[in-house]
Write a structure and sequence with these properties.
- By secondary structure, this protein is of the alpha+beta class.
- The protein is built from eight helices and six strands.
- A five-stranded mixed barrel has the order 1-3-4-5-6.
- The radius of gyration is 19 Å and the shape is globular.
Amino acid sequence: MNASNNISLPEVVPVMSLSNTALFPQAVIPLYIFEERYRTMLSDALSTHRMIAIADIESDFESITNDPNKIASVGIIRACKKNSDGTSHLILQGLARIYIKQLFFDQPYAQAKILEAKSRKKETNSDYLNIKPTLLESIQNLLQLNHQLPEDILPFLANIDDPETILDIAIASICPSGSEKQILLETLDLEERYNAFQNFLIKEKERIQINKKLLGDLDENDTKNN
């Protein structure tokens, strides 16, 4: 199987079960490995393809095993630091959305037979290319209101050419963890994913404006670009 970034995906990968964690393609997450089963998993992954799937197979086991189209994600270990106590810190970068077709439990950790879940693009080429400028503008408007968001996200996204990659990294960076983020991960239709995230940005902007107004902290600049 070929991921969108031309890295070949194996048919079977180890699975790390994490709740409220959605790994988006090209986005990165830090992980701390301390459980014995995951130490074994990490050692095996590092000696082979360096790939790990992320899915909540403990609390969402029934859904994953009964739904052949349940979407999760697979990432590649970009950096790993093993500590003296046997634990490890690693950086996992998302490679692709995947379907978990089958789970195996014959190792200390779970493994999954996977199939890449590719995005669907219904919009015209001009609509697709317009994702970048409109998304950057929406994020810039939100950054002017919420100074707790990462300030470097705009220049980082501006240096990316592919609109879908910009969308996924923006979701991973700005949307809080939880069901809404997982829904966006599972949305294969690119237009639907884009519209849903834009709606999130609009609602978040309105929420901040209302809070600022209630606190008497809303100035004239905050109400621009409504």
